[in-house]
Amino acid sequence: MKFKRLKIVEQIIIISLIGVLVPSVISWFIINNISQQSLRRELGYSAQMLAKTVENNIFSILNSGNNRLEEIIISLEHIQPNKQNLYLKNLAIKSDIFNEFELIRPSEQTDFDVKDSIYYNKETEQLWLTDKIHNDKYIQAEINTKFIKENIFKNIEDEKNRRIYIVDLNGKLLFSQNYDETDFTKSIKQLPKTLVNNVATRFEKIKNQPRVYIKMQDVDLVVIVNTTEELTKSTIIKARLKILAAFLIAAAVTIFLTLLYSYYLYQNIRQLFKGVIAVSRGNYKKPITPLINVLTPREIIFLAEEFNSMIEEINASYKKLKEKNKELKQLDSFRSNLVDTVSHELRTPLTSIRGYTSRLLRTDIEIDEATKHKSLQIIKQQSERLSRMIEDLLVIPDIEGAKLNINFEKVNIHNIIEASIYSVKNIENREIQNKIPSDFPYLWADKDRLEQVIINILGNANKYAYENTPIKLEAKYDENKATIKVSNQSDYINKQTLNTLFDKFIRIDDKTTRTTRGTGLGLYIVKGLVEAMNGNIHLKSTTENVFSVKLEIPLYKEDENYEA
User: Fold this and answer.
1) From CA 219, how far away is CA 128, in angstroms rounded?
2) Which DSSP string corresponds to 203-238?
């Protein structure tokens, strides 16, 4: 079956769909998982804080009762013994905290130990406070249950959806909020047999519905806080749906714009095809008329203009070809003179490629898949390194002869930075912090050359930065230019050495102490390209071990008449 090649517009649509849907689905799963874990931890943390708040409210009630009891004891010292019971009875009637008071002697009381200042009576299901009047006499006060209920759940208005139970050590329910019999029964069964004192502890069985308990230390009570299914839905599930909806909307808008853009691109490419066919048949008078609108790329317009100019200048092509051949000879001569200088840098990747290739071709040993994959990765990395060095060498004659072909256009620096970071991270996965906003003003520069500049600067920063330190990118602008700053943490470079870094084949570490790889052409090429785009470059190294490169590139201005 003969393979049918797709048209450009079909390829663009397929690649765009894959490029949008696959990252969107993966990103949704990752973000959704992170969001769910974060919300799950937040639910557990808030349940623990709520349990602690209820515990503090209980202690606040008990402390208030203790303070009131101490005031009563002071008053009893000034009342005749035969009138003390009547005084306490009247106090109980007026008090909002206590129901009743009792005066007892240790020998007369056997229900509980009078040494316990806080006591829960299991039979009457009441909390009692006890305090000593003098050596042989104590006062006991029963706390008003209604008062407890009114104050125990205060300051938790934002947690009305939680179920809260306060039980004794036998699991007997004393107070509750949003009581549910089934949920309460499950909570008591799941409660650990051994409880930790005064610590909010999680004991949930359902992943997204955390349960928390606190065993109070000074009184035999346990506070249980449960997360309801409704609260889980209102947090985790709703957040998940919002994230999914946002991704679907973003994907739909992106696909629509891609299809619209592809349609207009296809129409313009058809015009180019017609022009090429006409030229191949000897018709040099048929100009290209591209469909121009807001979606027409500048490159299409540029190609149409250049194609029309080519028809008129076809007779001058031979002369241009001779000039190009002359430049190639100069380049070849220059390249020959560089052999001694870069032989070591070229030999290193070639040696790695040859060694790992020989290993893969051996038939006398069995190589596992992991080793094969690692060998191929090293071959690929060394090939890319070799390619970058060759590209650097080839651009030098153009820089020296001031013959760089600069195609000025409106450039989005944010997109170039992102593409450059991706290229550098393929070499070493160092953290690169891009602080340049996506809405940064457009620059007037050569897109490809500017990307080459950024990659060289990032690569240089990557090689000399301290381990486990980030590379930072920042930018600002004024009326005429943008200033792009790339900084990293590295050894201090004195001013004398700093001024020589723009020269060819200059490296900070010499041949005997060399710890990094490279031809020493990076900053020389960067300076040449930046100046060719009417920009400037500055280097700075501080004693705080911060090295920075500042690029000044002209801004694109809508009201200026730029030539194509």
Assistant:
1) 10
2) --SSTTS-EEEEE-SSSSEEEEEE--HHHHIIIIIH
Cα–Cα distance for residue pair 556/434, rounded to 1 Å: 21
C-beta separation of 427 from 461 below 8 A: no
Q: Are 406 and 449 in contact (CB under 8 A)?
A: yes
What is the total residue count of the chain? 564
Beta pairing class for 471-477 and 432-434: parallel
Measured distance CA(540)–CA(549) in Å, rounded:
7
Token pair of 140, please?
Answer: 């006991």
What Å distances lie between residue 428 and 424, 453, 465, 470, 519, CA to CA?
A: 7, 18, 12, 12, 18
pLDDT of the chain, 564 residues: tens digit per residue? 556 667 666 777 777 777 777 777 777 677 766 766 777 777 788 888 888 888 888 888 878 888 888 888 888 878 888 888 888 888 888 888 888 888 887 665 545 555 556 766 656 667 778 877 776 788 888 887 777 777 887 777 656 678 889 888 888 888 888 888 888 888 888 888 888 888 888 887 777 788 899 988 777 789 999 887 777 777 767 777 777 787 778 778 877 877 777 777 777 888 888 877 877 776 666 777 777 777 677 777 888 887 778 777 764 564 666 778 877 775 565 555 555 556 656 666 787 788 878 878 877 777 788 887 888 877 887 787 777 677 766 777 677 666 677 888 999 998 888 888 877 765 566 788 889 888 899 999 988 888 888 888 888 888 888 888 899 999 999 988 999 999 999 999 888 888 888 776 666 654 433 444 555 677 888 888 888 889 999 999 998 989 999 999 999 888 776 654
349-to-374, 378, 382 alpha-carbon distances in Å: 15, 9, 5
Cβ neighbours of residue 399 under 8 Å, at least 6 residues apart?
A: 524, 525, 528, 529, 532
CA distances (Å), origin 34, targets 5, 24, 239: 42, 15, 11
d(CA 214, CA 221): 9
Task: Report d(CA 450, CA 419) in Å as an integer.
Answer: 11
Q: Which residues contact 532 (CB under 8 A, 6 or more apart)?
A: 399, 402, 404, 406, 446, 449
Q: d(Cα 142, Cα 301) in Å, to the nearest integer? A: 92
The answer to whether 471 touches 487, Cβ cutoff 8 Å, is: yes
> Tokens 């947690």 — which residue?
159
- Amino acid, res. 19: G
Q: Which of 128, 144, 221 is nearest to 176 (CA)?
A: 221
Q: Report d(CA 392, CA 405) in Å as an integer.
A: 15
For residue 369, give the amino acid letter: E
| Contact residues for 77 (Cβ-Cβ < 8 A; gap 6+) | 133
